[in-house]
Specification:
By secondary structure, the chain is of the alpha+beta class. It is 53% helix and 16% strand.
């Protein structure tokens, strides 16, 4: 199983000025724009920021979604068109940022971690959101996201999402990212149950490797949800000029969902950590069983070896050697000793089959 990277970050060159934009080679992001207000909605694929702004009317709210790494030109156009702070624009391409929400007075900049399943477990990517008065910009590392339910609500003409300001749309995008954690955690819980059964029944090195991989995945999950929870709580306490009072209850609901995610992740981390102790106990238990069997055999053969050794002594006079039935007497003594020791071990409970660590009942 490949080693999971716990830290993933792109950096500018050493000594570069703050806000320097990294250049992405052959960047061809997929761009779309949705302009809406009341019963009116326009949606189109776009090639630049100017096309998106031309799509929106004077009273319409605009959502521009960029999937894939953007180039410096696109970010510069977005910054000039919406007055975005250059440090926030630099964080869009310097992926691997800690989840956060920064207040730039006339707009908010949010970084969240979106997760999706892949062959090795989880695939994390950074989603950057600019939330301003009348606009929302979202930048994603890769195509494909969890925002489709939000788009469907916009297309269906839901009064709440179309009638509220653009900050409500931004809150719904953050909430969609958080809601995307729950199905994966549910599947992960089933995976941990299966892993627990294998740890108890087949404690092999491969299972131990999966346990460590699960711990690292959950550690990455924790690094994604804890900072976002703290940031949203601080934003709700301090207030903001961009967020309307009507949007705050929905953000509090998102924080409540994050608290649930944090609780589940912490429970899973403790459970995965206990698997290592169970693995070591199971291996020690199996070793003790092997040693017990070997000890029983050694204990049985010690008196038999003693009896057989008597007839191997080099004395001239050994009366039993002249007996006609001495040989059969020797084996009789051996059988009596063997039977007596087995009976003693049985009464002491040493020959009972040990109880299984895992009981299906």
């Amino acid at each position: 199983m490949p080693l999971l990277r716990l830290f993933h970050r792109r950096f500018t060159e050493q000594g570069a000025a703050p806000g320097t934009l990294l250049t992405t080679q052959n960047a061809r992001p997929i761009m779309s724009a949705i302009a809406y207000h009341g019963a009116d909605l326009k949606e189109a694929e776009i090639n630049d920021i100017a096309s998106a702004r031309a799509l929106a009317g004077p009273d319409q709210k605009l959502w521009i979604d960029v999937q894939g790494p953007p180039d410096a030109r696109l970010l510069e156009e977005a910054g000039a068109a919406f007055g975005l702070h250059p440090l926030a624009l630099a964080d869009v391409v310097n992926v691997g940022q800690r989840p956060k929400i920064e207040d730039y007075e006339d707009h908010l900049f949010a970084v969240v971690r979106m997760v999706s399943p892949d062959e090795t477990g989880f695939r994390w990517e950074q989603v950057s959101l600019f939330i301003g008065r009348g606009f929302v910009l979202s930048f994603q590392e890769h195509p494909g996201d969890c925002f489709e339910p939000v788009r469907q609500r916009l297309r269906a003409g839901r009064r709440r999402i179309r009638g509220n300001p653009a900050d409500y749309l931004g809150a719904m995008l953050v909430d969609a990212v958080v809601d995307g954690y729950f199905p994966l955690l549910e599947d992960y819980g089933e995976r941990l149950e299966d892993l627990e059964t294998r740890v108890l029944r087949q404690p092999t090195h491969a299972v131990l490797s999966e346990v460590y991989h699960a711990k690292r995945e959950l550690m990455t999950f924790r690094r994604a949800v804890w900072p976002l929870r703290d940031t949203l709580n601080q934003l709700l306490r301090d207030g903001n000029t961009v967020l309307k009072k009507s949007t705050l209850p929905y953000l509090r609901d998102t924080v409540d969902h994050l608290m649930q995610v944090v609780d589940v992740v912490e429970t899973f981390r403790e459970l995965a950590g206990s698997f290592i102790d169970v693995y070591l106990s199971s291996v020690s238990h199996r070793t003790n069983e092997v040693m017990r069997v070997l000890t029983i055999f050694a204990t049985i053969f010690i008196p038999l070896t003693f009896v057989a050794g008597i007839y191997g002594m080099n004395f001239e006079v050994i009366p039993e050697l002249k007996w006609r039935h001495g040989y059969f007497m020797f084996w009789g003594v051996v059988v009596v000793i063997l039977a007596g020791m087995l009976l003693l071990f049985r009464r002491l409970g040493w020959l009972r089959r040990p109880d299984n660590l895992y009981d299906d009942k």
